[in-house]
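## tool: complex_structure
## caller: assistant
## args:
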Amino acid sequence: MLGEVMDPEVPVISVVELGVVRDIAINGNDVHVTLTPTYSGCPAMHEIEADIRSALMRAGAGAVVVKTVFAPAWTTDWIGPEAREKLRAYGIAPPGMAEQGGLLTLTRRRASVVCPHCGSSDTRLQSEFGSTACKAIHVCRSCREPFDEFKAI
Amino acid sequence: MSGPPVAGQPVEGQPVAGPSVAGVRVAVVENALAEYLLRLGDDRLVLGHRNSEWCGHGPILEEDIALANIALDLIGHANSLLSLAGEIEGKARDADALAYFRDGVAYRNALIVELPTGDFGFTIVRQFLFDAYSVLLWNELANCAHAGLAAIAAKCLKEDKYHLRHSSEWVVRLGDGTEESHRRAQQSVNELWRYTGELFDRDGVDDALASQGVAVDMAALASRWRTMVDDVMSRATLTVPADAVMMRGGRRGRHTEHLGHMLSEMQIVARSHPGATW
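## result:
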């Protein structure tokens, strides 16, 4: 059911694939949904909650109770291989593995992100922040196209 | 808003160093936690609002987007922290009530975050000094005994690490950049330095929380922060001023003239149309 509720900003993966739905409990006619936010300030979380509510109500739920939890903190590592392929096909480079590294990563060399359009690794970071909290902007030197990257966190 | 303080009653939001009589002690500790959460939340709300003032005014498009995104994250952190503060306080104030319906004297943010944005260099240097402190603090609080705060800390830590990477790289770029960018970055360091001491102050609130396992060794934190700051500053060819007289007061509601002006803008819509929805 919730597999059909899409991320409002990335409408090719569902809220389940995104990893924000942590638990569902059905109690008679009522549905209790436990959500965890992606980014703390992500405005799409309100939209996601509303979409989940209406999808469950349409499916005949009596009441929908949504609870938000912060632990364990959301990570892009929860996005599975199938969903990553959907992102790539949509033109968004899927996230790498989230780093556990040190607090200050000033001298870190970044692995280049593979272009979702042509598959080239010859890309450069254009902007660490993008159109939504979860994305960064890169440019491919091979096909010259800009593309979004789903940031690993 | 509540009225003027009544004699014998604690001033709203003030920690109370009360006697440890049965019954009273519990209230004291609860206030201390709510007070601590206000400090954490207000720092991020005020800095988030300051960064949001760059929206549409960034020096380049990428930095306009970056500062707006960082502002959004910080306001998100404030929302989580102030919600929890309101819950623990138990006066039916949610995050919006705390953000929009408190006057400056009830704000508990450190002075450094309320200073006007200044130029891009000032904004970036402040963001770096704060990010370094914030990342170190969350790293400690993620393991604290209060489950609700620990969960928020672990989440904020991830996002703030990304901010720190961004701000530290910019400090190096500006400090080790052109003559003009170096001059402005150095001037910002000089102006901001005297506001950094307050971040590491320890008072009765921290002491009251220590018994709950929410204590952070601020002296050790300050030392780790200084190591991190020195590392970045030396790469940036910037100089940290010799120990200055530190400005403080924000944690007790004594603010600079700048906070009131900022709040009047931030709060005007909510106060003009209380309870409005759209």
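## assistant note: The domain at 24-271 of chain B is CATH 1.20.1260.10 (Ferritin). The CA atoms of residues 200 and 223 of chain B lie 10 Å apart. Handing back to user.
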